[in-house]
Amino acid sequence: MDDQAWIADVIARGARHGHGPVCVHRTPLSLSAAEGRRWRRLLPAVHRLLRKVRAALLADLDRGPESLAARLGTPLDAIEWARIDPGFPDVAPLARLDAYVVDGQPQFLELNAESPAGMGYASALAPLFPGAGHFLDPLPRVVSTVRALAREWGISTRRPSIAIVDLPGVATAPEFELLATAFRAGGHPVVVATPEQLSFDGESLRVGSVGIDVLYRRFLVRDLRRQPGAFAAIMEAYLARRVCMVNSLRTCLLHNKGIFALLHEPGFPLSPAERRLVSRHFPLTLLVSPRNQESLRRERERWVLKPVDAHGGEGVVLGWTATASTWDEALSRPYPQVAQLRVPAPTGRFHDARDGQLHERVIDTGPFLARGKLAGFLCRLAEGELANVSGGKATMVPVFEARR
């Protein structure tokens, strides 16, 4: 198959972001068996670390503006939503970590704990790389995780109905159909809907005449904060405990770049082994404050600035590419943000089907987690140092392991 026909096949399989392909590279990311084992050893320890952060954040939510979550920049209305019991213990049962692998060691840059995209895309792309190795398909794990959460929440039917919900017109909408196909293959009735299409009659959340057991949330907490009227029916059902929401609104606690700063605080209770884990795999991250602004100003080439609730690379400023005035302005922004120590971007050569040539690309490796267990990978390839698909800075390739 020539390159243009191959790109057309990517699009035909539903692996689209907006109208364009999410994958343009015919070279996947390949992991050796040893690298696969390294990820499997590391991720459970990282998950235990994140559970400790979760416990600390949940412990004092009643303190509102004085809570640890508020200190990390979580808005007060979101903290109130986080106090609602979602019906299961997990704060982020479906999540994705983003990492640069430097000298064989993952350096975790961010945690997408809210509504991680890419699981459907990875599954759709894998068949385009026959013979590439072992592929860990995330979608069966998504289906089994949602089914288990629904049982814990109290839904007795073995195949609960599911609504995949996001704002209208989002570029990731093609992935919703990939997810819906996976749920339907598991026997679940599924609808894809926007918030305004849902209604609540006091007993059941509905899309038209279809009752919804599980709301698979792809909209963000900040969408809810910005357009509360559009989510009125969803919130009424959620508050009345008439719908199981996955992921729940508690994700705002972990979907905050400030949690990596928390891990580096000397007063945060970690064991010596956990301190070593943080030192080895989490680049130094600081909450920007008047106390450290001057040193960050002097050493801008060592740091990247990120708003604590940024999405799609929004508001990210790379100190080593910014002018002094741009950096100073960014440091003075009125909203909570973190400074993260620069991590050298790993690169590799990949065949780009758009021109048929090999190109050097920055490699961002993203393991998916389902209730803390490895559920697969997605790799983002970028021409620059911001490896973000929604910001138009990157495309994706699936990840394969050497056959074991």
Structural class: alpha+beta
What is the fold named in CATH at topology level of the domain at 284-341? Dna Ligase, domain 1
Unreliable segments of 5+ consecutive residues: none
Percent strand equals 15-25%
Largest sheet, described in full? 6 strands, antiparallel
CATH class of the domain at 284-341: Alpha Beta
Cα(first) to Cα(last) distance is: 29 Å
- Please report the number of helical segments: 13
Oligomer: single chain
Architecture of the domain at 284-341, according to CATH? 2-Layer Sandwich
Shape call: globular
Let me know the number of strands.
Answer: 21
Kindly describe this structure:
The chain is of the alpha+beta class and 404 residues long. The chain has a domain at 284-341: Dna Ligase, domain 1 (2-Layer Sandwich), CATH 3.30.1490. Helix content is 32%, strand content 25%. The protein is built from 13 helices and 21 strands. The strands form six sheets. Strands 4, 5, 17, 18, 19 and 20 form a six-stranded antiparallel beta sheet that branches. It has a four-stranded parallel beta sheet with strand order 7-6-11-12, with helices on one face. Strand 6, helix 7 (173-185) and strand 7 form a beta-alpha-beta unit. Helix 5 packs across helix 7. The longest helix has 27 residues, at 33-59.
Describe the structure concisely.
This protein is an alpha+beta fold. The chain has helices at residues 3-12, 33-59, 68-71, 76-82, 119-125, 138-153, 173-185, 221-226, 232-239, 258-264, 272-281, 293-298, 324-331, and strands at 16-17, 20-21, 29-31, 94-102, 105-112, 162-165, 190-193, 198-200, 205-207, 210-212, 214-217, 244-246, 285-287, 303-307, 317-318, 337-341, 347-352, 357-370, 373-382, 394-397, 399-401.
